[in-house]
Amino acid sequence: MSFRRFWALFLCRNLEFLRDRSSLTWNLLFPLSLIAGFAFAFSGPGLDLYKVGVLGDPSDWNDSGFFKTRYIQFIPTADLPAALTKVQRHQLDMLFDPVGQRYWINDESPKGYVLERLLRGTERNSTLSKQTVSGRVIRYVDWVMPGVLAMNMMFSCLFGVGYVIVRYRKNGMLKRLKATPLTPLEFLSAQIASRLWLILASTVLVFVGTDWVIGFPMFGSYLDLFIVFAVGAISLISLGLVVAARATSEELAAGLLNVLSWPMTFLSGVWFSLEGVRPFLQKAAQLAPLTHIIDAARAIMLDGAGLMDISGHLLALTAMSIGFMAVGAWMFRWE
Fold first, then answer.
1. 103 with 96: CB under 8 angstroms?
2. 3, 113, 245, 297: which could form a disulfide with 146 (CB 3.0–4.6 Å)?
3. pLDDT digit string (tens) for 41-93?
């Protein structure tokens, strides 16, 4: 091995990266913006570890020690059936009725167990009644499974299309295709179709394998779930094509794809519920395709919803797919 040749290549690669101002900017700004975003989303005196829904008006809450416990977020709620559903789905760790001196927890929730001990420890002089959560008891792994599948699909869609097309452009393959009668729409459509069946096949295999080992509840239709993932995959692939439409640097493409993927990962409810976060962030999450995929998949798997019940999510994903594909085809360039 020649150290001289190694050093020459080392310097050339460093200069190539440093002279690519767009890539350098993204590598510097992305982690800063990500940290700033999380600081804004979870700002406050401390990160709340538990979420407790409280029935009634906040002005009627008593001065018990339970309400003074730190690291518990108390969320006012007036709709008892909706709140009970959130307890079943691990979106709320406990539902508490201070006037009726009763509470609800999910027996499959470790956080619910801890909160029950805290509540009974701070309300020793009260007669508390534990109510059974009616309906199906859902494990946390059952609730998080649709989000994990959708997240894995998101990374495959974005990086499997956006990053590859940028590499094609960089090594001159797209320049050679330009000399053929192939149109941008034809090329992009072929990329979508190719990536789509690969992603759906891998998603089905992952679902079948994990279901065989763990066993997930499925109260809806497998066909409806497949349709949701298919429409969602098309939307995410189309989004990746927007990034790949003009980017010429793999480093820049990776930065842009990270800018799109990581906020969606944390703000789409993959690992935790968005219940109780800032309303602005809850509305912003509805602009992400991943949010609609996860919500629709959970509705089918856990609630037995049909296509009509999730039609709003499907319409949103379809509109996003058409919009992203149109923008990608309009911005696309061969060189």
1. yes
2. 297
3. 555 555 567 888 888 766 666 666 777 787 788 888 888 888 888 887 777 88
Of the candidates 191, 314, 302, the residue with the CA atom closest to the CA atom of residue 242: 191
The H or E element that residue 97 is part of is strand 94-97
Separation between Cα atoms, residue 253 and residue 249, nearest integer Å? 6
Instruction: Quote the CA–CA distance of 310 and 294 in Å, as a whole number.
Output: 11
Cα separation of 165 and 170, whole Å? 9
Residue 19, both tokens: 């002279």
Class of domain 50-131: alpha beta
Helices (H), ranges, 245-310:
250-267, 279-285, 289-303
Total-model pTM: 0.67
Distances, alpha carbon 244 to alpha carbons 158, 212, 239, in Å: 9, 37, 9
Q: How far is CA 277 from CA 33, 38, 158, 281, 306, in A?
A: 19, 11, 27, 7, 28
Output DSSP code: residue 275: T
DSSP string computed for 21-86:
HHHHHHHHHHHHHHHHHHHHHT-SSS---EEEEEES-GGG----GGGG-TTEEEEEE--HHHHHHH
The domain segmentation of the chain, as residue ranges, is: 50-131, 140-331
Q: Which residues pair with 73 in a beta bridge?
A: 51
